[in-house]
Amino acid sequence: MTTEGRGTWGSRLGFVLAAAGSAVGLGHIWRFPYITGENGGAAFVLLYILCVALIGVPILFVELALGRHAQLNPVGAIRKITGNSAWKYVGYLGVAAGVCILSYYTVVAGWTFGYIFKTAFGWGGPHGQLTGNVLLNALLFLAFMLLTVGVVYGGVQGGIEKWSKILMPILPLILVAIILYSLTLPGAMEGVRFYLRPDFSAITGQTVLMALGQAFFANSLGMGAMVTYGSYLSKNENIVTSGLSVVGFGILISFLAGFAIFPAVFAMGQDPAAGPQLVFVILPEIFAAMPGGLVVGTAFFVLLAIAALTSTISLLEVPVAFLIDEKGMRRKVATWLVAGVTVLFGIPSVLSFGGSAFFTSLPFLGGMSFFDLMDFIFGAVALPLGGMLFAILVGWRWGMARAVAEMAQGNPAFMGLPGAVWGFLVRYVCPAVIFVVMLHQTGILRKLME
Ligand code: PFF
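Above: inputs. Below: predicted complex with 4-fluoro-L-phenylalanine.
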């Protein structure tokens, strides 16, 4: 199969910003602060960094090495190293996860659009008023989908790289502006203390699992997004330093997001453990109450929309690259096709917030909404499962010798001790830790321990 015409990154910085764009998204600015708030603050932050270093970084290297070696989408890449074996279904799992995650993630991404206008024009009303309005919800979802299509349509350099280079540097700037404002609020230091002083008694088994799950979701791991982005890398690229820059940027943004949010939450006497609604319910209340909140609030939701966009792009790119490589489809046709299927898949998620009684509260799942079900299957189970399979595939089937040789192209120093440590983590630590997490997340471990 020819790889001509599939595209490559134009520069090292372009790749780093695009991959960091995929990683940094709602997972960092919406999910990370509320999980941190629910799990005791600073101690959770330390645990998260540990999970990223021990599991996230090795799996990121696995995906990038595989993608760069094969110069193909996840299905093609796996076929290239294992022949036509059952391993290729790991690639299919990734392609399916791309469509499925995109279908519900874009619903939340659409809200960020809604909140830009809601905040800027002071349109009141509770969160439910926006999410429960099916037509509005559907329009916001479609608008965000179209924006994503518009970028992916442009291809690797002209679309993804170009827009990531424009959008990503804006992100820390807006965040820092919000932090500076947040820190000047009376009572803000209470929030800083909560965020920086670890209380290790808050760490439980559940906390560890949340930290690990977040390490996957937040770094776009386990579904081949990084295989796909790695496939556009040239052979002389230094995957090690590029990969570490991506992870470092992600940790920085997560860390800053907490700094933007917790001082404001404490200054306004709100509960840091308010859960998923922290960003969409508590923050707008804070913005409404504080002087200058209109500008800061609008900037915040613009920031969230930008971060979400560079992530939805990568979710769409995985199935699109699959269709281009494996089915010989033209990029534009593939983009529209995947977007169309994703919109159909997204309908139940759009209806999950009051629009349809059935999808809002699935009768056979004890009242869980369709949206929550999707997030559980793909956010919590499929990504760690995919990550574990990628680790086993590369560690045991492709072999660490070949993988290390791939990593060493562009970074010869990786051949020695770093490669050996990586091999140990990939072959033993990652599969074992993820396996235990999987058992726990699917409730099997809890049953066994009863
Ligand atoms: N990493 C993204 C976030 O933190 O919002 C979500 C994501 C994007 C997950 C791409 C998986 C993926 F392949």
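Residues 22-23, 25-28, 101, 217-218, 220, 223, 225, 311, 314-315 surround 4-fluoro-L-phenylalanine (CB under 6 Å).
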